[in-house]
Design a protein that fits this description.
Shape: elongated
Helix content: 40-55%
Number of helices: 3
Structural class: mainly alpha
Order of helices and strands: HHH
Number of strands: 0
Largest sheet: none
Strand content: under 5%
Length: about 120
Amino acid sequence: MRLKSLLKSRCPHCLEGEIFLSFMTMNETCPVCGIKFERENGYFMMAVFMGYVMGTAVALPLILILYLSGASLAGYLITLIPALIVLSPVIFHYARVVWLHIDEILDPRREQESSKSL
């Protein structure tokens, strides 16, 4: 159930509400359960790390393929830079979603943290 809601960018607490208004614009709170997504200032800095991990997961197979095919430095640059630029919005989006879900698993929110229950 959590994997499905993660892939659909749903709230890590109720697994139903949408995290994003549009592809790059987040809701401040869950429209279903009302939790605030950003717990504190700098909360999404760990999502930056998640983005690095995801970018590396994209780049390593490409680097391996280029290495095995004997590509030149220009081949690496022509392949890797556009691939990472094109995938950057997707990586940004899912890095935040993954971080929200990991944080919810490690430190579940209490009902008192919900803005609707206050």
